[in-house]
Amino acid sequence: MKQLGAAIIGCGSIHPLHALSVSELEDVTLRLLVDRDRNKAEAAASEYGGEAADDYLAILEREDIDVVHLCTPHHEHAGMAVELLKAGKHVVTEKPLAAGIEAAERMVQAADHSKGQLGVVLQNRYNESSQTIYRIIESGELGRLVGMKGIVTWHRNEGYYAKGGWRGKWATEGGGVLINQAIHTLDLLQWFGGPVEAVRGSVTTDVLDGVIEVEDTAHAHFRFASGATAILYATNAYAVNSPVELEIVFEQGTLHQRRDCLYLSRDGRETLLCEPPLAITGAKSYWGTGHRLMIRDFYAHVREGKKFWLDGTEGIKSLRLVKQVYEASRTAHIK
Ligand SMILES: NC(=O)c1ccc[n+]([C@@H]2O[C@H](COP(=O)([O-])OP(=O)(O)OC[C@H]3O[C@@H](n4cnc5c(N)ncnc54)[C@H](O)[C@@H]3O)[C@@H](O)[C@H]2O)c1
Predict the structure, then answer these.
(1) Rounded distance from Cα 15 to ligand 1 centre (Å)
(2) Which atom of ligand 1 is nearest to the CA of 167?
(3) How many A from CA of 180 to the centre of ligand 1?
(4) Per-residue pLDDT tens for 212-222?
(5) Domains, the chain, with CATH or none
(6) β-sheet bridge partners, residue 6
């Protein structure tokens, strides 16, 4: 079997998870680590193997690179993905798909015209708890889905926003807690709930005003075409990073995700359905452990020439909802 060649662009905080996930795949070789800060690229190359480069365009000339991982800031995803897809490379990009909708749409179009595939890292869909919730909704075993609640309370301080210079700005991050931290939970809510018919919400900068342009706190209400509803509360202004909480209410029972465990409450009894796996090295626990599963699955689809499910069309859904909450918040303030 031919070895597939991989490259990673962006050797900042998330790249170790990509490098480690690739290193677990016997039929894939990590060939190039790119960062515009050459020192970072070289440090990553010496840690994980492969060559170092400071300009991603070098990849376009490389026939030995099949798959490219985008671990760069949000506003860099679209330009890179479009060029790489045009050159026939497969691209797996970190969330969010892009900083804005137009850029994300360009990525989706480029993927439609490429022999390469576009995958989006929304790794929480691979959590056993997420898969279990989805299966229970699909099976109808607890009756109709009535409502959902998602709570994301994390801590991001001034020091976090100072790193890299791209965070905390509309032009480069594309938003705050919603687009960067809560997008995983928002993505799960829309995956579970199906098409969304109405979005309301409000965003504020409660603690980091004067430090960041974007919101550190958000709440939103979603009404699904099915009639179900969901609420989301997200903040980066909490004292610590708490596990995400989810509540999924059905006609005949309720699922609770607490401390990364999933419980079913039904007929006055509570049953543990799943516990979290141990985190792999390089992963902060609140990022979850889905990266290695998602990346393995992406390569399997590439290898077998099958369409990968978490593609641009899927990845743009949560991004659209993020932007709709911003719009709802903006117009609510005008009224
Ligand atoms: N899936 C998750 O749970 C998760 C967790 C953390 C971060 N992320 C995502 O990963 C991406 C990167 O985040 P991060 O925290 O690692 O950021 P970071 O700032 O730590 O790293 C980004 C790196 O990209 C490099 N870079 C920027 N522009 C470049 C360019 N034009 N060419 C080459 N290199 C360039 C920077 O020098 C930096 O080293 C973001 O999309 C973020 O949302 C996802």
Answers:
(1) 8
(2) 19
(3) 11
(4) 999 999 999 99
(5) 4-122+293-311 (3.40.50.720), 125-285+316-334 (3.30.360.10)
(6) 30, 67
